[in-house]
């Protein structure tokens, strides 16, 4: 082992980190390099100085109050106890439970409301006469700003298909009409928008 | 730290007792480690009040997270890691001392020769050194110049006698980094020490 190799192993040797075989090799090599003995001494004494530096200032410190201080900070917590969740976590847990266990009921309620609305609309329009749309609204418009289909489209609505179309009205608005497409059915105006705001249905639509 | 194996078993048993609701066991744990923890804290923060505050924080954190201690590492390593992290959090040091590779420095002949020794400062034994008040003050001043990382690693090795592997586990770095960091911690300590002892 040359001097450079020996010097590199000096610190792990002093720290007792080398295996038995390498330790023996280092010790044998140190005989051949006595100048490194001084370095080894300096390294070991450095440890002594460090221990003094760390231990001496705290040797006489009174630590009797540590446990009481810790318990005061902890209050009444039991060691290892499950921490109480905060308000946000509790609300989150409640909502999670609600949607996990109450979802079927919530969905059933929503479905019942939809059925009631559809039923009401169907019954209220069932006995009326067919309404003919005025010419200016009979054309299917293109509600580009509504991001709806420009062309009429058939959408399933329960047991019947509904023709959805958009009729342009003045000034620059659209009426969305759901039409069952059967004779005797009155078109259903679901909503009316002019420049993005809901307004009353214009008279010229005849709806 | 081979002699700590029986203690490690004691710690595991103590932790189990605390988790089972034994309040006395927690007190035993605190009293067993409070001086060590305080010493680590003081070693890093270098302020008695701050060290006491960190010490109590450590045990509060231990208490609250004891159920998360899985026993994969020793309890001492676990609590050591908590302590060091709390110390460093407290000081919020943004910049970290730049490390250079251990072997590069060694290849340039940067060993520990010409450093102060007990003999060079006219002291015949470590016990006698500890009784020299001015020497203790110099050690304290020299340690205060080190970075938190260097103080911590020096403390782990020189005071607690932890192996490179144990230190690596405690501070979550590879063993080789431990050796490099320890080398530079010692070099810096030696430089500071030489300066203070000469002055």
How many distinct folded domains of chain B?
2
Shape descriptor of chain B: elongated
- Mean pLDDT of chain A comes to 67
The ordered H/E elements of chain A are HHHHHHHEEEEE
**Unreliable runs of chain B:** 93-102
What is the total number of structural domains of chain A?
A: 3
The share of residues in extended strands of chain A comes to 5-15%
| SS class of chain B | mainly alpha
Instruction: Please outline the major beta sheet of chain A.
Output: 5 strands, antiparallel
Q: Helix fraction of chain A? A: 40-55%
Task: Give the N-to-C terminal Cα separation of chain B.
Answer: 36 Å
- Which value, in Å, is the CA radius of gyration of chain B? 18 Å
Which band does the percent of strand residues of chain B land in? under 5%
Mean pLDDT across the residues of chain B is 80
Q: What's the gyration radius of chain A in Å?
A: 43 Å
Pair with the biggest interface: A-B, 44 and 63 residues
Number of strands of chain A: 5
> Total number of β-strand segments of chain B?
0
The CATH class of the largest domain in chain B, by name, is Mainly Alpha
- What strand order characterises the main sheet of chain A? 1-2-3-4-5
What are the key terms here?
heterodimer, A: 207 residues, alpha+beta, 3 domains, five-stranded antiparallel sheet, 5 strands, elongated, B: 199 residues, mainly alpha, Rna Polymerase Sigma Factor, Chain: A, Arc Repressor Mutant, subunit A, 2 domains, 10 helices
Could you characterize what this model shows?
The complex is a heterodimer of chains A (207) and B (199). The model of chain A is unreliable at 80-85 and 126-150 (pLDDT under 50). Chain A has helices at residues 3-14, 20-32, 35-55, 66-74, 87-101, 103-126, 135-138, and strands at 153-157, 160-169, 173-179, 188-194, 197-198. Helix content of chain A is 47%, strand content 15%. Chain A has a five-stranded antiparallel beta sheet with strand order 1-2-3-4-5. In chain A, helix 1 packs across helix 2, helix 1 (3-14) packs parallel to helix 3 (35-55) and helix 5 (87-101) packs across helix 6. With 199 residues, chain B is mainly α. Chain B folds into two domains: 2-91, Rna Polymerase Sigma Factor, Chain: A; 102-198, Arc Repressor Mutant, subunit A, CATH 1.10.10. Chain B has ten helices and no strands. Chain B has helices at residues 5-19, 23-45, 48-65, 75-91, 102-107, 126-130, 133-144, 148-159, 164-171, 175-198. In chain B, helix 3 crosses helix 4. The longest helix of chain B has 24 residues, at 175-198. The model of chain B is unreliable at 93-102 (pLDDT under 50). Chains A and B meet through helix 1, helix 3 and helix 4 of A and helix 2, helix 3, helix 5, helix 6 and helix 7 of B.
